[in-house]
Amino acid sequence: MKSITALSLLALAGSALAQTDGTFTCSVIQSCGSNAQCLATCTQYTLLGTVVDLVGNSSGPGANYSADISVACDYKGQPSLAGKTITVSGFSNPPLQHTDSCNATIAPGTTDLFFVYVSSPAGAAITYSISTVCYGGIPATPANLLAVSVALGDTGRAGLTGNCTLPTPTPSPSPVAASSTTSSSPSSKPSSSAATLAVPLVSLAFGAAVAVLGLTL
Fold this sequence. Notes:
Order of helices and strands: HEEHEEEEEHH
Number of helices: 4
Largest sheet: 5 strands, mixed, barrel
Strand order of the largest sheet: 3-4-5-7-6
CATH architecture: Beta Barrel
Radius of gyration: 33 Å
Number of domains: 1
Shape: globular
Distance between the termini: 105 Å
Strand content: 15-25%
């Protein structure tokens, strides 16, 4: 039974995932939360699929079960799983005593993005597990598909065809070069003509002060 709570997930997110300029350093996959770009970067397979059936006891609080998923698109992962039906473990219902705990509830007929990995040991029959134990599938919204596209980059999108193509991110605008022209705003320093004019004015004021002093004496 999954025991990762919301608080422990936040703790993992603070220490296990570094994000710099849109790139991710993956350590603990759960720290991605439901961030599709992070998940597509950090997980082994990124799939678009439909749940055909549930395997195991999927009823009742705290139940852990698997799902048969028909894969429509394999955005990332080799060998490709597109067109295949795979069994993915790691789905669960929340226990009654911890209704806010992590769970990956799923229902037949659901079409979502699924982030999975090969969970079987080397040499054994291949089995798959869900990476997002707190969310199950991630909705295949335009925003999430765009996030996957960003994660894959031009190279990752190159081999996608048909209904599996992803939206191309809009290029970031190029930084505007600094203008070589001088600013037209008034300068805080006096101009040379103003400085030239200030000299005789100071001299005249000084002379007047001396004259007044002489008359007083």
